[in-house]
Amino acid sequence: MPKAIIQLGSQGDDVKRVQRYFIRNKEMDPTHLDGDFGPETDGFVRQFQQDNGLVVDGVVGPQTWGALGPYLEASPTLSYDAGDPGPADGWFGPQTTTAVQAFQRGGSGVVDEQTWFMGVGAMGLTLERAAGMLSFDPFA
Length: 140
Hints:
mainly alpha
């Protein structure tokens, strides 16, 4: 669970947690999930603070963390392991890899955070949301 106080210039996993919030809410582009608290992240944090009646200082401390919500962690990374085919159901094999690559439009075939945040339909549905990964509605 995040506990660090972060702000402009901070780097690391806690910054990624904040960036995921804005990506999941369709405010930040998924390609900007880099763990670097730069001017873009600072702007989103300040707007969030203003919109939620918090002190607008760009610092993500206890009050801002509390307002961000419960699900800030990464979705699991999935990939093909040629050495262990696993059970008949649930195996991430060559056919799944091919399907993922097609979904990624020629990507790596690895279901990483960029893939989880890709759109899969109307109304801004993401793969993460379609798979039932979110236990809350960020649009509520």
